[in-house]
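ok so for the tutorial part 2 we go from a plain amino acid sequence to predicted structure tokens. step 1 is just haveing the sequence, like this:
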Amino acid sequence: AGTGTTTGSDLVQVGAIIDGLTPKLKGVKTGLCFDTCHGFAAGYAFQTKKEANALVKLIDQAVGIDRLKVIHLNDSKGGFNSKRDRHEHIGKGEIKNFDEFLNHKSIKGRPLLLETPKEGEADDRKNLKVVGNIIG
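step 2 — the prediction. this is what the tokens look like for a chain of 136 residues:
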């Protein structure tokens, strides 16, 4: 998320980087990890069905949906397009709806890694319960 001015700060640039590196890294698998806080803070909306569809389409066009390997799942302390990378517990931040994105047919079933603040294992249990309610 950062300031939005660094190399690789948007999906089109990430796709170009992966395309440029892949031939040079023979035998090395490359892919995309989409971080929900970073995406939200960078201005990628995904809270409505229309927004989730548009983001999945953009990921496919810019990087290739087959290259999306994992989702770093976290809420955001900062607002939409704030350029602030500040992770929060699921449901406690500014992202009001994860349902449409996480349950999108092209996203559902991909690995999810919690990357939320952690003071103890109880935090993980709470976040996992919330995520379980979202994805069923």
